[in-house]
Specification:
The complex is a heterotrimer.
Chain A: E1 4-15, E2 21-33, E3 38-43, H1 49-56, E4 64-69, E5 72-73, H2 79-88, E6 89-92, H3 106-117, H4 122-135, H5 152-164, E7 170-174, H6 182-199, E8 202-207, H7 210-216, E9 219-224, E10 227-233, H8 234-239, H9 244-251
Parallel strand pairs in A: 3-8, 3-9, 6-7, 7-8
Antiparallel strand pairs in A: 1-2, 1-4, 4-5, 9-10
Helix pairs in contact in A: 3-4, 3-5, 5-6
Chain B: H1 7-13, H2 15-32, H3 34-37, H4 69-105, H5 107-122, H6 127-136, H7 140-166, H8 170-177, H9 182-218, H10 230-237, H11 246-278
Helix pairs in contact in B: 2-4, 2-11, 4-5, 4-7, 4-9, 5-7, 6-7, 7-9, 8-9, 9-10, 9-11, 10-11
Chain C: E1 2-15, E2 18-31, E3 35-39, H1 46-53, E4 61-69, E5 72-73, H2 79-88, E6 90-93, H3 97-100, H4 107-118, H5 123-136, H6 153-165, E7 171-175, H7 183-196, E8 201-206, H8 209-215, E9 218-223, E10 226-232, H9 233-238, H10 243-250, E11 295-298, E12 301-303
Parallel strand pairs in C: 3-8, 3-9, 6-7, 7-8
Antiparallel strand pairs in C: 1-2, 1-4, 4-5, 9-10, 10-12, 11-12
Helix pairs in contact in C: 4-5, 6-7
The chains are: A alpha/beta, B mainly alpha, C alpha/beta.
Chain lengths: 273, 283, 306
């Protein structure tokens, strides 16, 4: 059974006086993700990808359709079951600048999941936070700093460190590297791959960068106007796209007929940092 | 050049704010240590010394009943400052809680609270406080109640705006995704990030409240003799304006200086908060 | 012919942690009709360099060295002279168009300001010139009465480009103008830039190597406040000489996303000797002792490596 199943998911935002104006942001999206698999979602801004990310993360409620995680429908999960789902299903956002509370030091932000879920003594919390930082190569002196004193790459690492301590099984990544430099991006992506290999983590990787998605994903979905217009295994979608929008995204401004290089996965074994 | 990075250093650049802060500190100390600082018992009357001008024994003179003006002022500072700060503290707290609830939960709760706020804002100036105080009768407690009831709305509205900007930010959503309860999110994430405008507003609020207290006492609705505050002292001085001007000048000047001090401090704090909020540079 | 010559530029910033050198001994020239790319990671000082050229350094900055333009050292000029140069001779396109445009003025109002107040164009010609400018950057004249929030990121960037070229400046400085844009939009902006810089020079500051490769004639690579390599674009990508340049290129998605080991040093904790040596795959003992100089290797190629 798949780890995550999304069935006919739709979301509509209403606005205006008497809530008359309706805007369908996500329409009839269905997909599945298995344990240890990465599903990449490509879409431009405005295609509904961030809304989809938040829907799957359980932050907003769907208008129609269902999200089933590990056998439980999200909208009907309550109390203890919801708490354990929250631990297992996590999300990473795009903008590192607002990823942490600006008034809290990094070590307090990292300790947040421990405070929410476990009852630990202060010393135990401090120890665990140090472990978290060490596992993701964050130097100790960063722990006493505030978010605005850290670089984008360091913040995204810290975000990952924080949610890893809950042992999630599926992480939704909403444009995690689009605000980072080329070299930072490479580091974070290689880190994600390491984590996936070590703990069979599943990812829902959302981005507008085709090459990055191609590199990370086993299967790809193409989101356009809130609809999933193309969906299938990575190589198949990239080499033989069926929908015109997919072709536009892949070939776009390049010479027509010049396909995206699908990197050979064997060649891309990451060097250890 | 002052160290531009420590907050105290920056405040020091704003010299008026610093002067205001120091004055407030001094007045507060004076009020707290009143029994030790005041030269005489403010309630002690001495008809022989009625309406004397400032002299060696009575540095600011005496009033009609021979009471020392300076001592009255020192004890009166307790009321003026105490009521001012007390009202602001309570109304800011109430306003902040209502603002957070309103902004965070939205929907019907938000509508109801905001309409209430609108009503409070529609009422003109000091009039509602006047009416309430008039209905409840004179006395310190009623005065404070009246002023609090009319003051919370400003804080509620400003806090709600802050909450609306903070709530959609990723770190709040992350906390939700981590499984935090609403109360946790409000306590740990929302409130600390809303405090800045509240602090500034509160500082100006104390200034306004002091003026309001003085006005209401002047009208006879606040403290009654033998308790007094600077506004009540002003009231008493009216009859003797020509013969004993010091009775008018001293409390009047004191009120003015204290209000100015709070306003300057508020200006400084606002500039300080602004800079901290805008200081996004990595350098 | 050299249009702008940067000679031994050092920019120091007064920070809480003491004086930090954001730019160290920068020597760079921009030639006439040349597009020079300046690439590097966030925090390497490239943005500061761009700001130094237009005299918009932050208050806590101290700049030494020379920036020679039109026979004058820009660093020694008073603010009044700099105001004349800014815009007319050297125009800067900033990074985030949403915060660089006034949200309460329409796009037309913001553009026509230039013609009306700075170029003193006669009243009856302002409208026509503004419309022509908008069309030059590919914005439909019908949208000129819209407000910035009604435009998408790509369109706003076009407005910023319009503002920069209104004066017809001989030198454009573009600071991360494609950051955060979707791929198709990004390449459209690149095409536009190529078009408008056909007859002028440009300094393109970016961390996006593919954009730099598409647009620039020469590229300078910056690391930790220094320039570590300068070369013609194709030579740089085909035969990168400096290990950092090699690392950057192999970190591209198209090359397989290989990360460079370690983290960029903060400007307060710079390593001794070569600033890159802790992360360098070919570093030797001497690299931690001696700080290499930028040496010319012939053919417009400069390298800072022992």
């Amino acid at each position: 059974m798949a780890l995550l199943t999304v069935k006919n998911l739709s979301k509509c935002f209403t606005s205006g006086f008497l809530r008359k104006k309706r805007r369908w942001v996500v329409r009839q999206v269905s997909l599945t993700i298995d344990k240890g698999e990465t599903l990449g979602l490509i879409g431009e801004s405005g295609s509904g990808k961030t809304t989809l990310a938040r829907l799957v993360a359980g932050l907003i409620k769907p208008t129609t359709g269902r999200i089933i995680f590990d056998g439980t429908t999200l909208s009907s999960a309550k109390g203890g079951r919801m708490r354990s789902i929250r631990k297992a299903l996590q999300i990473v956002f795009q903008n590192p600048e607002t990823a942490f509370n600006p008034k809290m030091k990094l070590k307090d932000s990292l300790a947040e999941p421990l405070h929410i879920h476990e009852k630990m003594t202060r010393k135990a919390v401090a120890g665990k936070v140090m472990d978290m930082a060490r596992d993701l190569a964050l130097p100790e002196e960063l722990l006493d700093r505030y978010p605005h004193q850290l670089s984008g790459g360091q913040i995204q690492r810290a975000v990952l460190a924080r949610l890893l301590c809950l042992n999630p099984r599926l992480i939704i990544l909403d444009e995690p590297t689009s605000m980072l430099d080329v070299s930072c991006q490479a580091q974070i992506l290689s880190l994600l791959k390491e984590i996936q290999q070590a703990s069979k983590m599943a990812y829902l990787f959302i981005s507008h960068d085709l090459e990055v998605v191609a590199h990370m994903s086993d299967a790809i979905g193409v989101l356009h106007g809130g609809r999933l217009v193309e969906y299938g295994p990575c190589e198949q979608v990239l080499e033989a796209p069926r929908q015109p929008h997919t072709r536009y995204l892949i070939h776009g401004e390049r010479e027509v007929g010049d396909p995206v290089e699908v990197p050979d996965r064997r060649q891309c074994m990451m060097r250890q940092c | 050049m002052t160290d531009t990075f420590s907050p105290i250093g920056r405040l020091a650049d704003h010299r008026l704010a610093l002067a205001g802060g120091i004055l407030i500190l001094m007045v507060s100390l004076m009020a707290v240590l009143a029994p030790h600082v005041a030269p005489h018992d403010p309630r002690q009357t001495d008809m022989d010394q009625s309406l004397t001008a400032p002299n060696r024994t009575f540095p600011l003179g005496t009033n009609k009943l021979g009471r020392c003006v300076l001592s009255q002022m020192i004890y009166g500072a307790r009321v003026t400052l105490g009521v001012g700060m007390g009202v602001v503290l309570v109304s800011a707290l109430v306003g902040m809680i209502l603002g957070v609830v309103s902004g965070y939960y939205g929907g019907m709760v938000d509508e109801v609270i905001m309409r209430l706020v609108d009503v409070m804002f529609a009422l003109p100036g000091i009039l509602p406080a006047l009416i309430i105080a008039g209905l409840l009768g004179p006395g310190i407690f009623n005065l404070m109640l009246a002023l609090t009831i009319t003051a919370w709305a400003g804080y509620a509205r400003i806090v709600r705006s802050s909450v609306l900007t903070i709530k959609p930010l990723p770190f709040v959503e992350s906390a939700k995704a981590l499984g935090a309860s609403h109360l946790y999110i409000m306590r740990v994430h929302i409130i600390p990030n809303c405090l800045a405008p509240v602090i500034v507003l509160a500082t100006f609020g104390v200034a306004r409240t002091i003026l309001a207290v003085s006005a209401l006492s002047f009208l006879g609705l606040g403290c009654q003799t033998p308790n007094f505050d600077w506004g009540a002292m002003l009231k008493e001085s009216l009859l003797y304006m020509r013969t004993a001007p010091h009775l008018l000048v001293c409390p009047g000047l004191a009120i003015m200086l204290l209000v100015l001090a709070f306003n300057f401090l508020g200006d400084g704090l606002r500039d300080l908060m602004d800079v901290q909020a805008n200081r996004k540079q990595k350098y | 012919m050299v249009l702008l010559d940067i000679h031994q530029l050092c920019v120091r910033l007064a920070t809480r942690a003491g004086m930090v050198e954001a730019n160290s001994n920068i020597n760079l020239s921009i030639h006439q009709d040349e597009r020079l790319g300046l690439i590097g990671e966030t925090g390497c000082g490239k943005s500061i360099l761009g700001h130094a050229l237009v005299g918009l350094l932050p208050e806590n900055a101290v700049a030494t060295g020379k920036i020679i333009y039109g026979g004058r050292n820009l660093l020694a000029q008073p603010e009044a002279a700099l105001q004349k140069i800014r815009g007319r001779d050297i125009a800067m396109i900033f990074q985030d168009p949403r915060s660089s445009l006034n949200p309460v003025l329409t796009v037309y109002e913001q553009l026509m300001e230039i013609y009306r107040y700075r170029l003193s164009v006669p009243r009856n010609q302002i409208r026509a010139k503004t419309i022509r400018l908008l069309e030059r950057v590919g914005i439909d004249a019908q949208r000129m009465d819209d407000y910035p929030h009604q435009f998408s990121g790509g369109m706003l960037q076009r407005v910023m480009i319009a503002m920069a070229i209104a004066f017809q400046p001989p030198l454009l400085v573009a600071d991360e103008i494609t950051k955060g844009l979707d791929r198709p939009v990004k390449w459209k902006i690149v095409d536009l830039i190529r078009d408008v810089t056909a007859d002028r020079s440009m300094l393109l500051i970016t961390h996006d190597l593919t954009v730099a490769r598409a647009l620039c004639d020469r590229i300078a690579v910056m690391y930790a406040g220094e320039i570590v390599e300068i070369n013609r674009t194709e030579s740089l990508f085909n035969t990168p000489a400096h290990p950092y340049t090699r690392g950057l290129i192999s970190a591209l998605p198209a090359s397989g996303l290989h990360p460079i080991a370690g983290q960029a040093p903060g400007l307060t904790g710079l390593p001794h000797g070569c600033r890159f040596h802790p992360r360098c795959e070919i570093s030797e003992h001497i690299c931690s002792r001696r700080h290499p100089q930028l040496r010319p290797l012939g053919n417009d190629h400069y390298l800072r490596c022992s």
